[in-house]
Amino acid sequence: MATIDIRDLHIVYPGTTPGQAAVRGVDLILPSGQLTVIVGPSGCGKTSLLRAIAGFEMPHRGEVWIDDAKVAGPSHWVPPERRRVGMVFQDGALFPHLTVAENIAYGLARPRAAEAAARVDAMLDLAGLPRVYRDRYPDELSGGEQQRVALARALAPAPRAVLLDESFASLDASLRRQVRDDVRAILARAAVTGVLVTHDQEEALSLGDRVVVMHAGRVEQVGDPLTVYHRPASLRVARFLGDGQLLACRVDGPIARCALGEVSCVGPLARDGGTHPARTDGGDAGQMLVRPEDMDVRPRTHDAGSLGRICQRQFYGHDLIDEIELEDGARLAVRGFASACFPVGAQVKVILRPKMFQVFAAPARDAAPSVQPLRTAHV
Amino acid sequence: MSERRAARRRRSPRAPLVWVIPSLLTAVLVTVPLIYLVLRASENGLSAYLDYVWTPITALLLRRTLLLAIGAVLLAIALAVPLAWLVVRTDLPGRRVWAVVAALPLVFPSYVAALALISFAGPRGFLHGWLEPLTQLDRLPPVAYGLSGAVLVLGWFTYPYVYLPLVAALRLQNPAYEDSARSLGASRWRTFWTVTLPQLRAPLASSSLLVALYALSDFGAVSIVRYNTFTLSIYNAYRGHFDRTIASSRATILVLLTVLLIALEARLVQRLRAGRRRPSRPPSRVPLGVWRVPALVFVTTVALVGVGMPVGVVGFWAVRGLLVGADVDAAFSAVGNSLFVAALAAVISMVLSLPLALWSVRDRRPLARLVERLSRTGFALPGLVIALALVSLASRVPWLYQTVPLLALAYVVRFLPEATGTTRAALADLAPSFEEAGRSLGRTPLQVLRTLVLPLILPGVAAGGALVFLTSMKELPATLLLRPIGFETLATDIWLYAGEAIYARAALPALILLLVTAPPVYWLAIRPVLRERVPAADRSDAVPPSTPLTRADAILESTLDGSGAIVGDRLAGR
């Protein structure tokens, strides 16, 4: 187990200018024994960051420390083979001419010794693979099994950390979830510092102890999954991690008022609760992040909420998204459940579920619409 | 997208000198003949050079050489396009067998094909004997000689260079394009001309240029059918008056032509290359209906001329020769000589190709690219030109002149691109993540090279060595000029006897040469292309490191690239 410390890291690829750097000044501490997920759209620099930790990219500026040892920095370079950092590649990169056992033993000090065989068995057990797989070749395994062997191989030399580079991206959806859960369990059992890079926000939120959101070579936010989802530090993070909408609101102290009512809020505009007198101007203009599941639908006779009409529905099986048109023409995306939904076309009332809402300052120009849809930045 | 672009830019921090230095030496070695040739031709100044070159004879040679190249290309296309389409896209009966048979003319060196043609269709050949009762002609018109003979030989025996890439391209073509065209209301005929064929432009253009290159540099066939082109005239100038300045000057023009062709090919391919995507299912087949009869007549005719005729003629004369007591001992000593020099060249080429490939595949900096390009100089140089330069050079170095090592060196200069090509392809097939995985598991670069890279690329290196061996076995012009006195190989035996029309003595070495070289040609050049099958469905749960499809792609790619046109090129020894 080891803590990885990244200080003011810059990565510039040959043939590009520092202005086009892939990584631009990242400071990050990846705590010992935790699984940190680095997430961001294609080209945000997350893979470059990972490869700098592994030793496949030389930083242009900045330092990488593993525990108390500097592994990369100005005029200082530890080659990958001396970093004791395991890596699991997107395609697994199992050596096709070696058996499963030979693959796993490859990184051991003496791959042919008796201890090595025992270690291979231990790793197969850890990875939940039957020991009869020892003598199989990689092309005889399914994609999920290959990824498990790749992980076992990376863990075999007892590395200080394991880096996973989009390790589930090449698996199909149903298998991906399964392998993902297994990998999380294996990493927890091995009690090793883990770093996973992905562009899949669902993967990031469901897998990480901590989530690092990157954009354009910089870190946008670091936090646990709940925080980054519900309290995104920026609109960009809010947009990248999920759907929803921004509702125009007036922020007065800890209270935000919007078309759907009055709620508690946090964020740059909100001030502490307490005894402020209500402001006569109604408060600062802001935008409030409302995820589809932050709202609920009630019969039109309900005494709170705003009246609207269900004009469209996307049905997903386990849940659904209703598009509801309010009386002023604004449209809201509201998550609901098939077991308790109104028919399309019905007049309903939309209410906000009680929670702390995140507010952002309204854009400088005054023409912000009352409801602005927030679409996931698809990658 | 930008992620992928970034991935291409990534590379290891520095290029190890253990690869750089041998690569630089190799590049120098293989460019020496070209440099010497230019120096030799220009030693008396530009005006003297122009005096030699700017003559009516040059214009005549140019016209004849270009006529031959154009004729051969047209004939090759006319044969290859229908053949490829018939075996891939129709229900032609026995199409799997025809697919192989149609590629077989690749097996015959041009001088063997020419020998077969003049013996079969010459004025008093077999054909004359068969037709005499009908026509009462004393002799047939000399179509087997001159331009018509040369075009016939070079077109009919090089069309596989067009056919094989077309087969691969047709197989990889996404059927969705044709289906879309049909569903938009286009007829089958219109779909073929507007959708299918345009997608074949890149392989068609580059392989046609390859045939043209082949025709330009051929010496074996034109010398036997007596069609005077650049190569033949260079040879005669050298042999006849030992006038090396005339020979060198003409050789520079020939090299200029070949370099132009290669440059043209590189440009065309770059412009025409379309984004190829893995097709999800194999292409559909057109039912031929009543057209299957003319289709079968066509493929049978092509096979009879391209395979039946040379096999029949060589077999007939070989048996005849043995019956009247051919010199079997001489043939065996020629076999030994051929095998020995070819093996020597193959081993040297494999060894030299390793550092070159290791350096140039991963390092995309200008120096690495330049050296890699220089190492392919031999590809642009006709064998005769290399030989001419080496003869002149070695005549100043008596201990090297007319020795076996010098002959092997000529083969290496000529065929090194084949070895480097397959080694590079094998390395490029290897995802960088393999090496990175090895490094992250605690192994040094050298250990990774020994335990991972070398075992994995060994088949590619060996295939390269086999190609060099094969092409060296068949090489004619350099062997003729550089062999030690009294050192006959199969190729020189065949050519010398064929030139004197002593078919019975030429046939035995020819038969042996075919028996030795046909299996490797099949395994290295024909089978890899024809065996590739498009997977029925995408198995997305498995991540095979190298699917057959990507290998077919690599072969196609290398043919397109001209990065040697490695697999096919010069299998038949011009």
Of all chain pairs, the largest interface belongs to: A-B, 52 and 31 residues
Please tell me the overall pLDDT of chain A. Answer: 87
Largest sheet of chain A: 6 strands, mixed
Shape of chain B: globular
Strand content of chain A: 25-35%
- Termini Cα gap of chain A: 33 Å
Q: Stretches of chain B where pLDDT falls below 50 for ≥5 residues?
A: 1-13, 534-574
- Compressed to H and E, one letter per element, the order of chain A equals EEEHEEEEHHHEHEHEEHHEEEEEEEEEEE
Structural class of chain B: mainly alpha
What strand line-up does the widest sheet of chain A have?
Answer: 7-8-9-3-10-11
The description of the largest β-sheet of chain B is: none
Instruction: Specify the oligomeric state.
Output: heterodimer
Distance between the termini of chain B: 45 Å
Rg of chain B: 24 Å
Features:
heterodimer, A: 379 residues, 6-stranded mixed sheet, 8 helices, B: 574 residues, mainly alpha
List the helices and strands and how they pair.
The complex is a heterodimer of chains A (379) and B (574).
Chain A: E1 4-11, E2 23-30, E3 35-39, H1 46-54, E4 61-66, E5 69-73, E6 76-77, E7 85-88, H2 100-105, H3 114-126, H4 143-155, E8 161-165, H5 173-190, E9 193-198, H6 201-207, E10 210-215, E11 218-223, H7 225-230, H8 235-241, E12 244-252, E13 255-258, E14 261-266, E15 284-290, E16 295-299, E17 306-315, E18 320-326, E19 331-336, E20 347-352, E21 357-361, E22 371-374
Parallel strand pairs in A: 3-9, 3-10, 7-8, 8-9, 14-21
Antiparallel strand pairs in A: 1-2, 1-4, 4-5, 5-6, 10-11, 12-13, 12-15, 12-22, 13-14, 15-21, 16-20, 17-18, 17-20, 18-19
Helix pairs in contact in A: 3-4, 4-5
Chain B: H1 2-9, H2 17-41, H3 46-53, H4 56-89, H5 95-101, H6 110-121, H7 126-135, H8 146-156, H9 160-172, H10 175-183, H11 188-196, H12 201-217, H13 220-224, H14 230-241, H15 244-272, H16 292-323, H17 328-362, H18 366-374, H19 377-380, H20 383-394, H21 404-429, H22 432-440, H23 445-474, H24 477-482, H25 490-499, H26 503-531, H27 548-561
